[in-house]
């Protein structure tokens, strides 16, 4: 990553390598239960389930030998309770802000939306990957303060996929998510049920969040040496929590399991592998199942992305298997001895993912991902297409039309780009002559376009725009008209201008 500015007054930090590994079992987030029934906003005669989700402060143990850590999150756990939804069955969720009025992580008042005259503690919830009306999408400026609450409507008119909910408050979203405001939102459907993939206790979520932890067990969010401008361009922690635990273990039986992996980290990319044991069978991406399982020894996961996979421990009875990020160990699977019943299957064909032909697009937008380093020693800023958040909306796709977005990444970072509301497909990535682009504003490619790898051929909502390349995606803007956002999912970038509104507009009447 680019030049990291020095950090001011770092406290004494916990060294995860000094802790005994694999002493805590992997926790599973609880499943949310509906609080009751309420009339549907789309049909007041119909009663639909309503969930109540308090957002508040609690303490939780991240490791047996570490004092309990303060979190701000949903329910009483980090990650929060999992919402289990079914495709086509709408629900309501009341998100209640019961937080204190002072933030415990360092706010940068120079950032858009976090100015000194704004309340310190604000929240608004977004379900990442959900196709929802704009009023329920968690627009960053729709935040509310402690004591406030909002009921959002989720129609769930979409295919089975692992979505996730998290905070989206303007200018402090990186701090709120770091504090613990995240959880899973699963959509299931009949088609997926019919595949007989491992389910119930054999389907396990793995939610990855890296944190810096102080020696006293508390979260640490560093600040730059310029105390009046504390923002840092990236947050990385050496304590990698899985479902909120550091170095957990999971006892498994010698059979197939399905793992649903989410990278909910602020800025860390993961390169997952097993030190020993079976190969990954990659069965799904952000927005659902792949066409067929893809075997892999290593998986890359950028912030916001999800991977669905099957691991078959059948031939590994009695073994201990390590899950690593690069060469760092994160978790241990303990496979029981003997034999286990396994009536689940891993079909060779999963779900059709028809490729959207390029000819379906009525428009191509060329959008740069820039990084501005001010000569004056000001902190760097990342921008989308050279524009800041508050500039007028420039992307106005028409409802039910398809567009190609060319994400021209002229920075030296990978930026995971996420669009709200829609699912899309990766067309290709093509290396760019960055110098020519930056200094002469000329477009020239230095190589051929690389088609997606088989595991990137599924439906996506977050895509790695690799440095020095044009990443092309094809998107159909379906569902609703109205205002949404697109942004980089490195939360430090997002909070500092790497987010833009876009608006789906109704077709012109003829
Ligand atoms: Cu995870 Cu704006 O989203
Ligand atoms: Cu989203
Ligand atoms: Cu970025």
What does this structure look like?
There is one protein chain. This protein is mainly beta and 510 residues long. The protein has three domains: 17-193, Immunoglobulin-like, CATH 2.60.40; 200-335, Immunoglobulin-like, CATH 2.60.40; 358-504, Cupredoxins -  blue copper proteins (Immunoglobulin-like), CATH 2.60.40.420. Helix content is 5%, strand content 40%. The protein has four helices and 32 strands. Strands 11, 12, 13, 14, 16, 18, 19 and 21 form an eight-stranded mixed sheet that branches. A six-stranded mixed sheet has the order 1-15-23-22-17-20, with no helix packed on it. Strands 2, 3, 4, 6 and 8 form a five-stranded mixed sheet that branches. Strand 3 and strand 4 form a beta hairpin. The longest helix has 7 residues, at 173-179. The chain is globular and about 65 Å long. CU-O-CU linkage binds at residues 126, 128, 166, 168, 304, 418, 420, 485, 487, 489.
Keywords:
eight-stranded mixed β-sheet; binds copper (II) ion; Immunoglobulin-like; 510 residues; binds CU-O-CU linkage; 3 domains; mainly beta
Q: How would the global form be characterised?
A: globular
Largest sheet: 8 strands, mixed
- In terms of quaternary structure, the protein is single chain
Mean pLDDT: 95
**Helical percentage:** under 10%
What distance lies between the first and last C-alpha atoms, to the nearest angstrom?
50 Å
Our Rg estimate from Cα atoms comes to 22 Å
Give the bound compounds. CU-O-CU linkage, copper (II) ion
CATH superfamily of the largest domain: Cupredoxins -  blue copper proteins
Domain count: 3
CATH fold name of the largest domain, please? Answer: Immunoglobulin-like
Q: In percent, how much strand structure appears in the residues? A: 35-45%
Going by CATH, the architecture of the largest domain would be Sandwich
- Contiguous low-pLDDT stretches (5 residues minimum) are none
β-strand number = 32
- Give me the number of helical elements: 4
